[in-house]
Amino acid sequence: MPSAVCRALIAALCLLLAAFFAFVGWNKAFASLADLARYGAWTVFLPEWAGRVVGWSEIALAAGLLSIFVPRRRAVARWSALLLIANQIVAALVHLTHGETAALPQNGVLIALLFAVAIFARPNFARGAMP
Predict the structure, then answer these.
(1) Are 34 and 26 in contact, with CB atoms under 8 Å apart?
(2) How far apart are the first and last CA of the chain?
(3) CA distance 31 to 61
(4) What is the reported pTM?
(5) How do residues 92-107 score in pLDDT, each as one tens digit?
(6) Which domain of life does the protein's organism represent (predicted)?
(7) 85: closest CA among 64, 62, 114, 58?
(8) Where are the domains positioned within the chain?
């Protein structure tokens, strides 16, 4: 059975990632395009409506990460992490095609942390199976 410490660390990681994605999602959904450009938001390279949709999706997926605290809903946290990995892959590709290579380490770290959540949020892991 997974240790209580391991479960607590994954829960804390989900909480931190949810806070991060809620923050950046809120900015993408509501900030002016000038502010988004100033802070290096990759969505400035999309049509405005598409960038706003990305922001709303990040807010929704941040909420999905919080389902890690509901034992029977851990699969929602896993799927949220997997979808956020896809989000970060697209973000990295956009940064790369626009010469913003300084943003790539952040994308890499987020992908790695989200991958850990996806592994440890598996429903069978919660019941005691090791990854």
Answers:
(1) no
(2) 11
(3) 19
(4) 0.89
(5) 999 999 999 999 999 9
(6) Bacteria
(7) 114
(8) 11-126
